[in-house]
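Supplementary Methods. Inverse-folding protocol.

Structures were first reduced to a discrete structure-token string of length 327. This string, shown here, constituted the complete conditioning input.
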């Protein structure tokens, strides 16, 4: 699989990685055997980037990755985790003592002395403008607790503020056919600065897979039920902030644009891979078959100009007014 660079950090990652939120919790139940099968299928398909967080299953996702890699010492995988969501979301909690405590826990979970890449996990907006926060992250690097750091953001404005920080290696941001605003400024700025772009929520929480209807019912412990209107965390993380009924209708149009032999999910992933400035995209998977199909999108040909124009038209007509002013 194609490998792309985080230029500032000297890191490389497969253009399609694996998001592991679903291996912890918040997407319904996933047992350990199923989780290992997903990791195995991804690695066999050429995926070399796993993204996790300390709050995914309260550490379960990190621990699952650690067990998987421990049993495969020859496997070269870049592991990125996140920190910051274990406390009240106020800027005062983003301090060195907390960073060390969270980092200690993640290093234990991941079974490593130094983590490849640690990202602030969508912190409050003032954090991005606080010098002391980034001084503390530099301290973690100096103490050899982490090799590099980045940020996961909710808004384009937060991303641009982070990119201006000299030691930020990566920015993780929502980008998909239903969330195009990052194409305007964020991706060009990241390319210019050598900052890696990690794309999350690439399928708009599954909408762009084309598998859901207005009558689909998700489990109670699935964030697509309990956070549909932003009840638990930022609404933009669930269905990219798009109203579900609108999203289902738009997703049906999107699915019809898939070339023959492609799944709608592969169309969605290939659209992202094709955007200049994207380093890696991290779809989740609940089964080995999904992991393999996602990875296969890396080898598909570029989309035609007609298809790209049709996807843009769909976004402009159905989605843009709902999301672009907020994120």
């Amino acid at each position: 699989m194609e490998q792309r660079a985080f230029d500032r950090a000297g890191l490389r990652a497969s253009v399609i990685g694996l998001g592991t939120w679903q291996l912890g919790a918040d997407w319904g139940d996933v047992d350990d055997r199923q989780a290992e099968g997903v990791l195995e299928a991804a690695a066999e398909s050429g995926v070399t980037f796993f993204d996790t967080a300390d709050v995914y299953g309260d550490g379960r996702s990190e621990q699952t990755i650690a067990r998987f890699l421990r049993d495969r010492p020859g496997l070269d995988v870049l592991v990125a985790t996140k920190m910051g969501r274990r406390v009240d979301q106020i800027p005062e909690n983003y301090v060195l003592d907390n960073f060390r405590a969270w980092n200690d826990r993640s290093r234990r979970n991941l079974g490593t002395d130094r983590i490849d890449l640690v990202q602030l996990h969508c912190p409050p907006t003032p954090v991005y403008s606080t010098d002391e926060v980034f001084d503390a992250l530099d301290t973690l690097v100096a103490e050899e607790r982490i090799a590099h750091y980045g940020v996961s953001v909710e808004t384009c404005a937060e991303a641009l503020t982070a990119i201006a920080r000299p030691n930020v290696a990566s920015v993780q941001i929502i980008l998909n056919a239903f969330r195009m605003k990052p194409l305007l400024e964020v991706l060009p700025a990241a390319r210019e600065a050598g900052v890696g772009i990690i794309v999350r929520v690439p399928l708009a929480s599954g909408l762009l897979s084309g598998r859901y209807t207005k009558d689909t019912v998700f489990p109670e412990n699935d964030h697509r039920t309990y956070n549909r209107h932003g009840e638990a965390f930022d609404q933009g993380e669930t269905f990219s902030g798009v109203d579900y009924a609108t999203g289902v209708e738009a997703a049906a149009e999107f699915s019809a644009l898939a070339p023959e032999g492609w799944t709608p999910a592969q169309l969605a992933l290939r659209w992202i891979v094709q955007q200049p400035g994207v380093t890696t995209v991290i779809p989740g998977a609940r089964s080995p078959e999904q992991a393999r199909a996602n990875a296969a999108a890396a080898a598909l040909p570029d989309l035609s100009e007609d298809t790209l124009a049709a996807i843009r038209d769909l976004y402009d007509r159905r989605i843009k007014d709902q999301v672009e002013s907020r994120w």
